[in-house]
Amino acid sequence: MAQSIGDMSNDDWNTFIGRFTDLLMDFDIAGSVGNYSLYTALHGEYDKAKTDAKDGTLDIEKALLGAMLLDGECIAGVRKCLPRFRQQSHRTIYNAICALNDNGEPADQVTVSEELSARGQLNDVGGAATIASLVGEMATSVNAEYHAKILATLISRTVEA
Questions:
Q1: In this structure, are residues 124 and 92 in contact, taking their beta carbons and an 8 Å threshold?
Q2: Predicted confidence (pLDDT) per residue in 110-158, tens digit
Q3: Domain locations in the chain?
Q4: Model pTM greater than 0.70?
Q5: What does CATH list as the number for 57-160?
Q6: Which of helix, strand or coil describes residue 27?
Protein backbone atom coordinates (compact mmCIF):
# COMPACT_ATOMS: atom_id res chain seq x y z
CA MET A 1 0.00 0.00 0.00
CA ALA A 2 1.29 3.44 -0.88
CA GLN A 3 2.38 5.75 1.89
CA SER A 4 0.22 8.85 2.30
CA ILE A 5 1.76 12.28 2.66
CA GLY A 6 0.56 12.48 6.26
CA ASP A 7 2.49 9.30 7.12
CA MET A 8 5.81 10.51 5.70
CA SER A 9 8.69 11.26 8.04
CA ASN A 10 10.55 14.56 7.70
CA ASP A 11 13.45 12.78 5.99
CA ASP A 12 11.08 11.08 3.51
CA TRP A 13 9.34 14.38 2.84
CA ASN A 14 12.64 16.24 2.30
CA THR A 15 13.84 13.50 -0.05
CA PHE A 16 10.59 13.66 -1.99
CA ILE A 17 10.62 17.45 -2.30
CA GLY A 18 14.29 17.49 -3.33
CA ARG A 19 13.80 14.84 -5.98
CA PHE A 20 10.60 16.43 -7.26
CA THR A 21 12.32 19.82 -7.55
CA ASP A 22 15.21 18.24 -9.47
CA LEU A 23 12.75 16.56 -11.80
CA LEU A 24 10.88 19.75 -12.54
CA MET A 25 14.12 21.52 -13.38
CA ASP A 26 15.31 18.72 -15.69
CA PHE A 27 12.06 18.04 -17.52
CA ASP A 28 10.88 20.19 -20.36
CA ILE A 29 7.47 21.84 -20.62
CA ALA A 30 5.97 18.64 -22.08
CA GLY A 31 6.94 16.81 -18.91
CA SER A 32 9.44 14.42 -20.38
CA VAL A 33 13.07 13.74 -21.15
CA GLY A 34 13.26 11.63 -24.27
CA ASN A 35 10.43 9.12 -23.98
CA TYR A 36 10.46 9.05 -20.19
CA SER A 37 7.50 10.60 -18.46
CA LEU A 38 7.55 12.39 -15.13
CA TYR A 39 5.64 9.39 -13.70
CA THR A 40 8.35 6.98 -14.88
CA ALA A 41 11.07 9.19 -13.46
CA LEU A 42 9.38 9.37 -10.08
CA HIS A 43 9.16 5.59 -10.07
CA GLY A 44 12.84 4.81 -10.33
CA GLU A 45 14.11 5.36 -13.87
CA TYR A 46 15.02 9.05 -13.55
CA ASP A 47 18.79 8.54 -13.64
CA LYS A 48 18.49 6.24 -16.66
CA ALA A 49 16.29 8.80 -18.43
CA LYS A 50 18.88 11.54 -17.89
CA THR A 51 21.72 9.28 -19.08
CA ASP A 52 19.84 8.17 -22.21
CA ALA A 53 18.93 11.74 -23.13
CA LYS A 54 22.45 13.00 -22.42
CA ASP A 55 24.40 10.37 -24.38
CA GLY A 56 22.04 10.47 -27.38
CA THR A 57 21.15 6.78 -27.42
CA LEU A 58 17.42 7.46 -27.64
CA ASP A 59 17.87 9.65 -30.71
CA ILE A 60 20.08 7.05 -32.38
CA GLU A 61 17.59 4.29 -31.55
CA LYS A 62 14.77 6.30 -33.10
CA ALA A 63 16.84 7.00 -36.20
CA LEU A 64 17.72 3.33 -36.63
CA LEU A 65 14.13 2.22 -36.23
CA GLY A 66 13.15 4.85 -38.79
CA ALA A 67 15.81 3.62 -41.20
CA MET A 68 14.59 0.03 -40.86
CA LEU A 69 11.01 1.16 -41.51
CA LEU A 70 12.13 3.10 -44.58
CA ASP A 71 14.38 0.43 -46.05
CA GLY A 72 14.02 -3.25 -45.26
CA GLU A 73 17.39 -3.90 -46.87
CA CYS A 74 19.21 -2.35 -43.89
CA ILE A 75 17.53 -4.61 -41.29
CA ALA A 76 20.10 -7.41 -41.59
CA GLY A 77 23.02 -4.99 -41.16
CA VAL A 78 21.48 -3.39 -38.09
CA ARG A 79 20.71 -6.81 -36.57
CA LYS A 80 24.30 -7.91 -37.15
CA CYS A 81 25.70 -4.95 -35.18
CA LEU A 82 23.04 -4.36 -32.57
CA PRO A 83 21.51 -7.23 -30.61
CA ARG A 84 19.09 -5.06 -28.64
CA PHE A 85 17.83 -1.57 -28.01
CA ARG A 86 18.08 0.18 -24.66
CA GLN A 87 14.57 1.59 -24.29
CA GLN A 88 11.76 -0.95 -23.79
CA SER A 89 9.38 0.57 -26.35
CA HIS A 90 12.17 0.60 -28.92
CA ARG A 91 12.97 -3.06 -28.16
CA THR A 92 9.30 -3.91 -28.69
CA ILE A 93 9.23 -2.14 -32.08
CA TYR A 94 12.58 -3.70 -33.06
CA ASN A 95 11.31 -7.17 -32.18
CA ALA A 96 8.22 -6.64 -34.35
CA ILE A 97 10.39 -5.47 -37.25
CA CYS A 98 12.65 -8.51 -36.88
CA ALA A 99 9.69 -10.91 -36.66
CA LEU A 100 8.17 -9.52 -39.84
CA ASN A 101 11.55 -9.67 -41.58
CA ASP A 102 12.12 -13.26 -40.42
CA ASN A 103 8.75 -14.23 -41.92
CA GLY A 104 9.67 -12.64 -45.26
CA GLU A 105 7.11 -9.86 -44.80
CA PRO A 106 7.81 -6.17 -45.34
CA ALA A 107 8.49 -4.11 -42.21
CA ASP A 108 7.10 -0.64 -42.80
CA GLN A 109 5.06 1.68 -40.63
CA VAL A 110 1.76 0.03 -41.59
CA THR A 111 2.86 -3.60 -41.18
CA VAL A 112 4.74 -2.92 -37.95
CA SER A 113 1.73 -1.08 -36.50
CA GLU A 114 -0.49 -4.02 -37.48
CA GLU A 115 1.97 -6.53 -35.98
CA LEU A 116 2.16 -4.62 -32.71
CA SER A 117 -1.62 -4.27 -32.65
CA ALA A 118 -2.02 -8.03 -33.16
CA ARG A 119 0.37 -8.61 -30.25
CA GLY A 120 -1.52 -6.13 -28.07
CA GLN A 121 1.58 -3.94 -27.84
CA LEU A 122 0.74 -0.97 -30.06
CA ASN A 123 -0.44 1.25 -27.20
CA ASP A 124 2.60 0.22 -25.13
CA VAL A 125 4.91 1.87 -27.66
CA GLY A 126 2.86 5.04 -28.05
CA GLY A 127 0.48 3.99 -30.82
CA ALA A 128 0.59 4.24 -34.59
CA ALA A 129 1.58 7.91 -34.37
CA THR A 130 4.84 6.92 -32.66
CA ILE A 131 5.61 4.40 -35.39
CA ALA A 132 4.86 7.04 -38.05
CA SER A 133 7.09 9.57 -36.29
CA LEU A 134 10.05 7.18 -36.43
CA VAL A 135 10.04 7.32 -40.21
CA GLY A 136 10.80 11.04 -39.98
CA GLU A 137 13.78 10.44 -37.68
CA MET A 138 16.04 9.26 -40.50
CA ALA A 139 16.13 10.76 -44.00
CA THR A 140 18.06 7.82 -45.44
CA SER A 141 19.12 4.34 -44.39
CA VAL A 142 22.54 4.55 -46.09
CA ASN A 143 24.55 4.69 -42.84
CA ALA A 144 22.22 2.59 -40.66
CA GLU A 145 24.79 -0.14 -40.02
CA TYR A 146 27.40 2.43 -38.99
CA HIS A 147 24.90 4.09 -36.65
CA ALA A 148 24.06 0.67 -35.17
CA LYS A 149 27.75 0.18 -34.37
CA ILE A 150 27.87 3.57 -32.63
CA LEU A 151 24.79 2.71 -30.59
CA ALA A 152 26.16 -0.71 -29.64
CA THR A 153 29.34 1.00 -28.39
CA LEU A 154 27.36 3.55 -26.35
CA ILE A 155 25.20 0.84 -24.80
CA SER A 156 28.21 -1.33 -23.93
CA ARG A 157 29.97 1.64 -22.30
CA THR A 158 26.90 2.31 -20.14
CA VAL A 159 26.64 -1.35 -19.14
CA GLU A 160 30.32 -1.40 -18.18
CA ALA A 161 30.06 1.80 -16.11
A1: yes
A2: 999 999 999 999 999 999 999 999 988 776 777 788 778 888 888 777 6
A3: 8-49, 57-160
A4: no
A5: 1.10.860.10
A6: coil
